[in-house]
Amino acid sequence: MIIGTPSTFAIESRIAQAYERLSFRALGFFVLHLRGERYGVLAPDATMLACSLGEVEDRLARRGSHTAAFASEADGGKIADAFRDAIYAPDQEDKSFFGIPQPEFSEFLHGNHLIWAPDGDEAFDDGSYVLHFDVGDRVRLIAFRCGEDHHHDPQTLRDVWLPASDYYGIIHQWRNAFIAEWQAAPKIPEEEDQTEPNKTLHLTAGNAPV
Predict the structure, then answer these.
(1) Could you tell me the residue range of the domain that residue 21 belongs to?
(2) Would 120 be classed as within a structural domain?
(3) Could you tell me if residue 121 is inside a domain?
(4) Rounded distance, CA 63 to CA 84, Å?
(5) How far is the C-alpha of 98 from the C-alpha of 117, rounded, in Å?
(6) I need a labelling partner for 21 at 20 to 30 A (CA). Which of 35, 38, 83, 186 fits?
(7) How far, in Å, CA of 165 to CA of 64, rounded?
(8) Is residue 26 part of a domain?
């Protein structure tokens, strides 16, 4: 299912196998579309979807709190590279980003929940990153994949501003639609599931790759 408009912002997901265990929820995929670019792994066995659902629910609960003074920086690529350097590049301890020392900047990114993707599982193992900022009555999403170094690949950068009501409306609608889809799906009971489900599916016509 796709909620939203891929040419602007949308969430696309699919349940290939549902589980009763809430820490699994379902095997499938969860991807984000921003201005026609897709971020995330589009495969029927890409990830367990509990993390993706949890991240959306957390963003709804923290509406308006994903804030940063540097969110007004006009160059989205500069924000993307600062994030990558502060979190992933070696020997950054003596550096500052937007006037904030690296240890504090890294802690700030996590503490204000500015990193939407990766979301804690394998949904974004294609190397995608998505940053989320609440800026007044708007939301700014900066999405990209990395090039050969720590910095973003400019061809993959998407910097999207949305009315906050549109953004939160889309993620809320996706959350409700996903829960309804999961509730309606036949599920593997907890006593029959695996501790770490095998993500290699025997695909049938009903769950063939898209």
Answers:
(1) 2-191
(2) yes
(3) yes
(4) 24
(5) 22
(6) 38
(7) 11
(8) yes
- Lookup: tokens for 179: 């829960």
Q: Is the pLDDT of residue 22 over 90?
A: yes
Yes or no: say if 16 and 26 are a contact pair by the CB < 8 Å rule.
yes
For the chain, what is the domain count?
1
Report d(CA 56, CA 119) in Å as an integer.
9
At 13, list the tokens.
């997901």
DSSP run (H or E) holding 159: strand 158-163
Q: Which residues, 6 or more positions from 148, have their beta carbon under 8 angstroms from its beta carbon?
A: none
Q: What is the DSSP string of 38-100?
A: EES--STTSEETHHHHHHHHHHHHTTT----GGGG-S-HHHHHHHHHHHHHSSS-TT-EETTE
Residue with tokens 């020392």: 101
Whether residue 145 is contained in a domain is answered as yes
Taken as a whole, the chain contains a residue count of 210
Spatial separation of the C-alpha atoms in residues 138 and 198, rounded to whole Å: 40
* Range 63-67, long-range pairs (CB < 8 A, 24+ positions): 63/134, 63/164, 63/168, 64/134, 64/164, 65/112, 65/113, 65/134, 66/112, 66/113, 66/114, 66/132, 66/133, 66/134, 67/112, 67/133, 67/134, 67/135
Helix axes 102-111, 76-88, angle to 10 degrees: 110
Residue with structure tokens 């201005």?
A: 35
pLDDT tens, residue by residue, 83-137: 999 998 888 888 999 999 999 999 999 999 999 999 888 889 888 999 999 999 9
